[in-house]
From TrEMBL:
Cellular localisation: Cell membrane
Coiled coil: none
Superkingdom of the source species: Bacteria
Organism: Enterocloster citroniae
Sequence similarity: Belongs to the nucleobase:cation symporter-2 (NCS2) (TC 2.A.40) family. Azg-like subfamily.
Keywords: Cell membrane, Membrane, Transmembrane, Transmembrane helix, Transport
UniProt-recorded name of the protein: AGZA family xanthine/uracil permease-like MFS transporter
Chain segments annotated as transmembrane: 30-51, 71-90, 97-116, 122-140, 160-180, 200-219, 226-245, 269-295, 370-403, 423-446, 458-476
């Protein structure tokens, strides 16, 4: 009888998510969901640190700790809401979580630089969520995606590949900052040093070993090569001092208390608009909402297009399957994220890790979503996996995504230059949105200046002008 019930549940999941139709399996989808979660789990540790850091810098460690605890719970819940929407509403294998870059803008520009409080900054995120829902409902975001020319669209996937590669190399400590050359390779010859220097080299070695393991397993067609590589790197990191089994924080009760006190539904509308010059405040807030929205929109659009192309979720017209539902999930999650106390929740590029494992349906997202929720109770396990173990997953997915560069048209310069800008601006400015923006701007300029104005859609030109104005007049960190 038990076997019959299990089979009925499996059949329902297959029909609901279209697993067989997508040429996948429940086992593959579950494995992909776990892989996506492990690859993005670092955000559960990093996001609370970033959003609370302004209060550390301002000398208020008590408030900083409260915000960090509250944001941890908010990050788990916000990521769960966004990802479960992707699973059950959009039925796509994408995860959502607070976006890196946007959280830094929230913390260091809006709170620390401009003097807004944590609660007031949440209002700005909330307003950008409302804006997103409106433009998604009327179809504007879909129209924007359709306006992106093929020269830029085809370059987004390899651009994201390089972008997540540089994130992985940085997280692993393989590349380090250098005042003379901007970045450089970690000095492996210093392996005999003690302390932080030795840990840096050990972290880089752990990541490189993990990367090689992933490559070998993938070449041998072993299922779950990325996840197995992460587990192997985590274990290898124990004797190297990179994996810390002491990272256990079981004080969940305090986190829930602080979540209720400072994060959950703690948006300070009254404080935000309480200034002496109301119209000036409205203008400033509007500019901040637009800045948040532009970066979030093109980060999520770029991720959506890149991941969809990687997973084969493109229809015969070249459009993303279930695009409107995916965009609405993204919009609602931004609103929900503000309500639970975290910065902008968006579709994350780490979704590509699960897709690389074989995730093709919403079941992948459902597994990831419940792992986000479960992290509230099982954060000690999540915190044990070091950045050096997840970094090789990003690098390896970068390899897979870069393969799409063969689809980019480099034969004609008015297409080649925009594609090139799209690809290189993503990793070298640390932003998917910047890559798409400069791709669109150079596309319009090249087409208009070479007598091919008929190739430029009106909306493409409008978006490019908006980006020019944004770069000229709107500060973003």
């Amino acid at each position: 009888m038990e076997d019959i019930v299990v089979k009925q549940k499996a059949d329902f999941a297959d029909r609901f998510f279209g697993i067989s139709q997508s040429r996948s399996s429940i086992k593959t989808e579950v494995l992909a969901g776990i892989t996506t979660f492990i690859t993005i789990a670092y955000i559960l540790i990093l996001n609370p640190q970033i959003l609370s850091d302004p209060y550390v810098i301002m000398g208020d460690p008590v408030m900083a700790e409260k915000i960090a605890n509250g944001v941890f719970i908010g990050t788990c819940i916000g990521a769960f809401i966004g990802t479960v929407l992707c699973a059950l509403y959009a039925k796509v294998p994408f995860a959502q979580a607070p976006g890196m870059g946007l959280n830094a803008f929230f913390a260091y520009t809006v709170v620390l630089g401009m003097g807004y409080t944590y609660g007031q900054a949440l209002v700005i995120v909330f307003l950008s969520g409302i804006f997103f829902i409106v433009i998604t409902a009327i179809g504007l975001r879909e129209a924007i995606i359709r306006s992106i020319p093929d020269a830029v669209k085809m370059a987004i996937t390899p651009g994201i590949g390089l972008f997540i590669t540089i994130i992985g190399l940085k997280n692993a400590g393989i590349i380090i900052s250098n005042p003379a050359t901007l970045v450089s390779l970690v000095d492996f010859s210093q392996w005999k040093l003690e302390g932080a220097d030795m840990m840096l080299i050990n972290g880089a070695l752990t990541a490189l070993i993990g990367l090689i393991i992933m490559g070998i397993l993938h070449a041998r067609k072993v299922k779950g090569s990325i996840l197995l590589g992460i587990v192997a790197a985590t274990l290898i990191g124990i004797p190297l001092g990179i994996t810390h089994l002491s990272n256990l924080d079981m004080n969940i009760g305090v986190k829930f208390r602080d979540f209720a006190e400072v994060s959950f539904m703690r948006m300070d509308f009254a404080g935000l608009f309480a200034g002496t010059n109301f119209m000036e405040t409205v203008f400033t807030v509007t500019m901040l909402v637009i800045s948040f929205s532009l970066v979030n929109m093109f980060d999520s659009i770029g991720t959506l297009l890149g991941a969809a192309r990687q997973s084969g979720m493109i229809d015969e017209n070249g459009e993303v399957i279930r695009m409107k539902q995916a965009l609405m999930s993204d919009a609602v999650s931004t609103l929900a994220g503000a309500m639970v106390g975290t910065s902008t929740v968006t579709t994350v590029v780490e979704s590509s890790a699960g897709i690389a494992v074989g995730g093709r349906t919403g079941l992948t997202s459902l597994v990831t979503a419940f792992m986000f929720l479960g992290s509230i109770l099982f954060v000690p396990i999540v915190s044990i996996v070091p950045a050096a173990a997840t970094a090789p997953a990003l690098i390896f997915v970068g390899i897979l995504m870069l393969g799409n560069i063969r689809e980019v048209d480099f034969s004609e310069m008015s297409n080649a230059l925009p594609a090139f800008c799209t690809i290189v601006f993503m990793p070298f400015t640390y932003s998917i949105a910047n890559g798409v923006a400069f791709g669109l701007i150079t596309y319009c300029l090249m087409k208009l200046m070479t007598g091919r104005k008929q190739d430029v859609k009106a909306l493409t030109l409008v978006i490019s002008v908006v980006f020019v104005v944004r770069y000229a007049f709107m500060t973003l960190g």
